[in-house]
């Protein structure tokens, strides 16, 4: 008897996770493998991917779970295509695509964003997700089964005085999954976004190392703590697994209550 | 296959006590059964004592090997003393409640909103909105003392859209979404997560009048991108996610589980 509960069983499934060498992406890869998936750990840096792969094989993979590295810089279409093609060549299929990699090269008022930073952000955070889904969804459609999960951000639901363009791309991710839902739903492909607020990762260190921001967070997040990577990766497993069979086009906000209202009013 | 594999901790519910209202049929039954499969102790409840007994026995038979266990407590959640007795039975048996699933709801009127009889409106609002508020008051202080818990309300995508026939029901389901936002703000600091799940049309007895209506059924199949109605298990998995480790930082949200309906019309092939 498998110890993986059937609603969350990913045995025999193949998953790709971009930006999986650390942070939220690493945790997603670990959790998917713990639920039986073969995971492709991808990022620009093959050495750090290899470390994650070794950790997954040693500590996380259960049953049919396995891991391998395929490096990819999602800023280039050829590399996105190769990521999908090499996965199919090695493991024969793609069932789950987790678009987690994103970038945020500029901090400041949106009116001052340099053109190079604009191009880079739009390409990595939006265009790459289209490239990856363009290539992966036809394979999923062959088996009438698949799940696309894009890691967005609550930033895509609110304005920001420092990360304006990043937040615009994260709002676009929410619309992208709605459109993927409409276009690919008839092939039983589900597309959803997971939108965390502040999670303790290297990428967010610029935010989590700011004591003023941490204080504001403690005042305004009802749960009065920032997120951990495991707070996000479990929901991704749920969306990828039979539990998420009828959920598509949605954005799951994971934010300790931030969007619900301020927990501050009592002082 | 590894010789000894550990149960992934992300969705395990062993050690948790869950109360599921309206759990003798449909979505509620699927949630109670699946939670027991994940190791939870569950309180099965609905108005009908014999149905409660049958489902309780079924869960005990099917999921004892998974560490699941069930007791049955009949209750009409429209009556506060019966809500109190339901919660008290869980405390008497197991000493705590970690997950409360407010699933029971009523929809006694089908017609234009402005013609709804006064008593039907009152009944909808007291059963679908006030009763969950009663339950929150009965369980949240105890959850807070124990360091946290989850409160999941089964709402409906109806609460996000108008409807020519079930307007008052939809009003109550919108109120549920706001209720969990307010519970998030009030109880979040005690590590209590309150969320809604909002399904579209699921094949249950409760919604039979809707999916047996050929126009609504055909409309659903035409316009839902996934081209099928929901099954109770489509909702149960998300309920487990919210109650488990996976849902520890999800708070004040409404998870729409609707085959893609709210995303857009999947019709133009």
Structural overview:
The complex is a heterodimer of chains A (267) and B (269). Chain A has 267 residues and is α/β, with parallel strands linked by helices. Chain A contains 8 helices and 7 strands; from the N terminus they run E-H-E-H-E-H-E-H-E-H-E-H-H-H-E. A 7-stranded parallel beta sheet of chain A has the order 3-2-1-4-5-6-7, with helices on both faces. In chain A, helix 1 packs parallel to helix 2 and helix 3 runs parallel beside helix 4 (115-142). The N and C termini of chain A lie far apart (52 Å). The mean pLDDT of chain A is 94. The longest helix of chain B is centred in the middle third of the chain and has 29 residues, at 118-146. Chain B has 8 helices and 7 strands, in the order βαβαβαβαβαβαααβ.
Secondary structure blueprint with pairings:
The complex is a heterodimer of chains A (267) and B (269).
Chain A: E1 14-17, H1 23-34, E2 38-41, H2 46-60, E3 66-69, H3 77-91, E4 96-99, H4 115-142, E5 146-151, H5 164-184, E6 189-196, H6 205-208, H7 211-220, H8 229-240, E7 251-254
Parallel strand pairs in A: 1-2, 1-4, 2-3, 4-5, 5-6, 6-7
Helix pairs in contact in A: 1-2, 1-8, 3-4, 4-5
Chain B: E1 17-20, H1 26-37, E2 41-44, H2 49-63, E3 69-72, H3 80-94, E4 99-102, H4 118-146, E5 149-154, H5 167-187, E6 192-199, H6 208-211, H7 214-223, H8 232-243, E7 254-257
Parallel strand pairs in B: 1-2, 1-4, 2-3, 4-5, 5-6, 6-7
Helix pairs in contact in B: 1-2, 1-8, 3-4, 4-5
